[in-house]
Specification:
GO terms for molecular function: aminoacyl-tRNA deacylase activity; ATP binding; valine-tRNA ligase activity. This protein is an alpha/beta fold. Helix content is 46%, strand content 17%. β2, α3 and β3 form a beta-alpha-beta unit. α10 packs antiparallel against α11, α20 crosses α24 and α21 packs antiparallel against α22.
């Protein structure tokens, strides 16, 4: 693997002070306890100053690219961001150690409506509106907000230990990205894929802007269904219609029935009188109407319903808008002009009832659209807006998935969700009536009204030959610019070196909640403008929920600040818990006790490493040699390390971080700490110098590789420990990833070690069963199943004697043993522990008889309670069930103790 450039002379003293060196021996001055804050404050500045995260320093290496999903500059990062970014950092750190030229490009999103709403709320608290300031002054306020929160996000990124290449950081309103936005807009317009038209859109009356379909959240609302009677002009009868929004009837321009509905065959073409307003409206026939649903007649309001708009287009109906942009009824609403739409609903209902038009009102639960940003009820609204014609773009994206050249979704079930949406996508409303964002690159002549689309005003003048041009006041939907993120950040539309080297990117990591918002848009724009998919894989993770599985929200007060987690337990503990706590696509429940367990895991790693380093004094990197004669435990731990390295590489490539975490935990806690280090003490404290040197080499080698494996998950503690170990290189971030080595495979050592561990566990289990502490020595007799097993036992008798804590130890194919023994069977051997060496039999019988008396009392008490008719009749079923469970438990325990007494008496 290509090493990083050597440290400058200025950096060298600082690194020495930090406890590390480009190549050196073990440093045994580790503090007794691990201090996460000290490590974080030490190593992140060192990584930054060393430039270790900068891409482009390995020109011969294969590139690996991730562009960060840019967080909105609306506020602080939350725990969901921490999950998203940690998973990316694990991938980047792993690939960097595997020798790739890695680029992890950071950036932030201007977030249009979300950021403008925040700034307007802040100004509103000072009784100032954006209109008081004017566009230019208001935008100064938003830029100041952006600078404040971008700095906060930077600080949070550094606290999380993210290995970002800040030299390439981008913002969606950067000039380079703005150039890309204008280029895409103009090219789509020139192809006829962007157009301006008057259509029904989703309108947010609070923010006073258009919304796209996916910016509308549908919530179940307890409303009403109003049944109304519209009279025929000729007095021959009436037609009954139903609506959930009676205030919109003021904009009705027809009533539609199905052309084959016999009930209305004679009414088609007749005229109705619209109640309240008195406007004459026709009865029309359209197959849109479901004749089996309700009365089979539908009121048509083309300016306030998307389906009605389509019907109106087919029948050339007038489009009457009855409210303004704030949701207030306008002059077309007649007597209700100036009323809020909810107030109008109440008043018009009363008037309809008084006129005998209202037949009935019934309770009705239905889905109502709400603005994702402001929370206001969305109004379907007829408005002149800019749109992207989606079908041609969608078809290319669909074809890519179907012919196998598309994006690989992980888990693959999300591909179906993506395809379903993009196959049914409607034209995208991209204009927003905001001030913060990319201004639409269209200009209008103030004298002629002529419109021209261009990359800038100068180009617009050249194209039109006009000088009195004024730019469109609207801005583009945020997702228009963020949809270009994978390539606009790399310099497109210019033919940049970064674009040539790092595009397409390798993986996008994001939550399932923005597949439609962002993932789909990136795919179809990339295919259209670069001819390639924007990333090979898209890893979809779930949401972070609270311990009860609820979505985190301000209203519930159950949100978690990642900086609070880091403050309490350290960045490594947060990263490990959050990255290994779920499987791809599944939601994660945040539990503080899980973070505490991760902190305890870090402490376990620290304590084990500190013990090892105390026994590696004087050992240099050059001294490490694992090729000589090694003991069973040495060969076994090398095999397990090799096996774990292979499996972790495979699992990270498959994005299975949960299983990776389990393997790391089991290897470090169980294999390395609980078994190998304990076994190593025999050699380290023994008189055999050759065995000691071999064990030191293995211990240094295994700890070094273990720190590398854990580094992507726990970067700080791994760097701190690695710098104390005998090592080569400036930083663990550039150390080579542990690759599988067939030479370290040793199934014989595994079989031997498994036998030894099974024997030691069996002795410990017997001790626990008869309450004999580990401090008390016991006699042990082992009956081996064959000569091979006997040889293994005899070869490792020192380990068995030490960890079983024996006073005497005998092994053979058919050894003599007393009659009264405790026994256990393991694969290949039977273990016998003479009772006389374990316990005083008479004393134990006396103790057990006392236990029987206690259990008799408990059984009698429960029997009496359950035999009481009054208790059984009055007590809750749950309490009775609990008592019956106690009865069974006490009885079973009593039987076991009686059986043990019989066994001891022989």
């Amino acid at each position: 693997m290509a090493e990083h450039d050597q440290l400058t002379p200025a950096q060298q003293p600082e690194l020495e002070a930090n406890g590390g060196s480009p190549a050196g021996g073990a440093k045994t001055d580790m503090p007794t306890t691990y201090d996460p804050k000290a490590a974080e404050q030490k190593w992140y500045p060192y990584w930054m100053e060393g430039g270790f995260f900068r891409a482009g320093q390995r020109p011969e290496a294969k590139p690996y690219t991730i562009v960060i999903p840019p967080p909105n500059v609306t506020g602080m990062l939350h725990i969901g961001h921490a999950l998203d970014f940690t998973l990316q950092d694990i991938l980047i750190r792993t690939k960097r150690m595997q020798g790739y030229d890695t680029l992890w490009l950071p950036g932030t999103d201007h977030a249009g409506i979300a950021t403008q709403t925040k700034v307007e709320q802040k100004l509103r608290a000072q009784n100032i509106s954006r209109y008081d300031l004017g566009r230019e002054k208001f935008l100064e306020q938003v830029w100041a907000w952006k600078d404040q929160y971008a700095a906060t996000i930077h600080e949070q990124w550094s606290k999380m230990g993210l290995s970002l290449d800040y030299s390439r950081e981008r913002f969606t309103l950067d000039e380079g990205l703005s150039k890309a936005v204008r280029e895409v807009f103009v090219k789509l317009y020139e192809k006829g894929l962007i157009y301006r038209g008057k259509r029904i859109i989703n309108w947010d009356p609070a923010a006073r802007t258009a919304l796209s379909d996916i910016e509308v959240e549908y919530k179940e609302v307890n409303g009403h269904l109003y049944h109304l009677r519209y009279p025929l002009k000729d007095g021959s009868g009436f037609i009954t219609v139903a609506t959930t929004r009676p205030e919109t009837m003021l904009g009705d321009t027809a009533v539609a029935v199905h052309p084959e509905d016999e009930r209305y065959k004679d009414m088609i073409g007749k005229t109705l009188i619209l109640p309240i307003i008195g406007r004459e409206i026709p009865v029309i026939a359209d197959e849109y109407v479901e004749k089996e649903f309700g009365s089979g007649a539908v009121k048509i309001t083309p300016a306030h319903d998307p389906n009605d708009f389509e019907v109106g287009q087919r029948h050339n109906l007038p489009q009457i808008v009855v409210m303004d942009e704030s949701g207030t009824m306008n002059s077309e609403a007649g007597p209700y002009q100036g009323q809020d739409r909810s107030e109008c609903r109440k008043n018009i209902t009363a008037d309809l009832k008084e006129q005998g038009v209202l037949i009935s009102i019934e309770d009705h639960v239905h889905q109502v659209g709400h603005s994702e940003r402001s929370g206001a009820v969305v109004e379907p609204y007829l408005s002149t807006q800019w749109f992207v014609a989606m079908q041609p773009l969608a078809e290319a994206a669909i074809q890519a998935q179907k012919d196998g050249t598309g994006v690989n979704f992980v888990p693959d079930r999300f591909e179906k969700i993506y395809l379903h949406w993009i196959e049914n996508v409607r034209d995208w409303c991209i204009s927003r009536q905001l001030w913060w964002g990319h201004r639409i690159p269209a200009w209008y002549s103030e004298s002629t009204g002529e419109m021209v689309v261009a990359r800038d005003e100068e180009e617009a003048r050249q194209i039109s030959g006009l000088s009195d041009l004024k730019q469109d006041e609207d801005v583009l939907d945020t997702w228009f610019s963020s949809g270009l993120w994978p390539f606009s950040t790399l310099g497109w539309p210019d033919d940049s070196e970064d674009m040539k080297r790092y595009y397409p990117t390798d993986v996008l990591v994001t939550g399932y909640d923005i597949i439609y918002f962002w993932v789909a848009r990136m795919i179809f724009t990339a295919l259209e403008f670069t001819g390639e998919k924007p990333f090979s894989d898209v890893l979809i993770h779930g949401l972070v929920r609270d311990a009860e599985g609820r979505k985190m929200s301000k209203s519930l007060g159950n949100g978690v600040d990642p900086l609070e987690v880091i403050e309490k337990y350290g960045a490594d503990a947060m990263r490990y818990m959050i990255s290994t706590g779920s499987t791809p696509g599944q939601d994660l429940r945040f539990r503080w006790e899980k973070v505490e367990q991760a902190r305890n895991f870090a402490n376990k790693i620290w304590n084990a490493s500190r013990f090892a380093l105390m026994n590696l004094e004087g050992v240099s990197f050059e001294d490490i040699d694992i090729s000589g004669k090694l003991g069973t435990a040495d060969r076994w731990i090398l095999h397990r390390l090799n096996e774990t390295s292979r499996d972790i590489s495979r699992l990270i490539n498959a994005y299975d971080f949960g299983e990776t975490g389990r393997l790391l935990y089991n290897f470090i806690w169980d294999d390395l700490c609980d078994w190998y280090i304990e076994f190593a003490k025999l050699s380290l404290y023994g008189s055999d110098e050759a065995a000691k040197r071999s064990t030191q080499s293995v211990l240094a080698y295994v700890l070094d590789r273990t720190m590398r494996l854990i580094h992507p998950f726990m970067p700080y503690i791994s760097e701190e420990i690695w710098q104390h170990l005998p090592h080569q290189g400036e930083t663990i971030t550039l150390a080579a990833w542990p690759e599988y080595d067939a030479a370290l495979e040793n199934p014989d050592a595994v079989a031997e070690m498994n036998l030894l561990m099974d024997m030691i566990r069996a002795v410990r289990n017997i001790r626990a069963e008869v309450n004999v502490p580990m401090s008390k020595k016991v006699e042990l007799i082992v009956k081996a199943g064959n000569q091979e097993t006997l040889a293994i036992i005899e070869r490792n008798n020192a380990y068995i004697s030490r960890f079983a804590n024996t006073s005497s130890f005998e092994a053979g194919l058919n050894p003599e043993a007393p009659e009264k023994v405790m026994s256990a069977v393991v694969t290949g051997a039977e273990l016998l522990l003479p009772l006389s060496g374990l316990i005083d039999i008479e004393q134990e019988i006396a103790r057990l008889q006392k236990e029987v008396q206690t259990l008799n009392s408990e059984v009698e008490r429960v029997d009496k309670k359950l035999g009481n008719p009054g208790f059984v009749a009055k007590a809750p079923a749950k309490v009775i069930e609990e008592e019956r469970a106690k009865q069974a438990d006490y009885s079973a325990k009593r039987e076991k103790v009686l059986a043990r007494i019989a066994e001891l008496r022989g």
